Amino acid sequence: MENTGEYLGILATFLLAAAIAGLILALNALLGPKRPVSAAKAEPFECGVAPFAVATGHLSVKFYLVAMLFILFDVEIVWFFPWAVILRELRWTGILEMFSFVFVLALGFLYAWKKGALEWEK
């Protein structure tokens, strides 16, 4: 147990975060408004115009799936820029590592493609 001192900073951070969260919740309970919301304030209101109908539009689950896949692959593509900046310093090791990264990325893309996640049919 000679390395326990290294974890004291992490423990202190978690305790401080929990204390701040508890303090905020306690202050909200003590100082926050106690009266219920009026009917006028509970109505939806957007852009200065009261809504004239209930929103009935539904989005397909495929939309969310395609959006998540886009974000996933877009974030992974961001790794190409720093790799390209230091490519000369990395030499062949960096090239092999990036090709393995691209290979795994392509496997994920092919898997999503084969499962039909990229097709837009209802």
Could you describe the 3D structure shown?
- Helix content is 65%, strand content 0%.
- By secondary structure, it is mainly α.
Short summary of the structure?
The chain has 122 residues and is an all-alpha fold. Helix content is 65%, strand content 0%. It is flat, with a radius of gyration of 26 Å.
Assigned CATH architecture of the domain at 61-114? Up-down Bundle
**CATH fold category name of the domain at 61-114:** Methane Monooxygenase Hydroxylase, Chain G, domain 1
Query: What is the CATH homology-level superfamily of the domain at 61-114?
Result: NADH:ubiquinone/plastoquinone oxidoreductase, chain 3
User: What would CATH call the class of the domain at 61-114?
Assistant: Mainly Alpha
Unreliable stretches (pLDDT < 50, length at least 5) are none
Class by alpha and beta content: mainly alpha
Helical proportion, percent range: 55-70%
- Using only CA atoms, what is the Rg? 26 Å
Average pLDDT confidence is: 83
| Termini separation | 59 Å
List keywords for this structure.
122 residues, mainly alpha, Methane Monooxygenase Hydroxylase, Chain G, domain 1, 5 helices, 65% helix
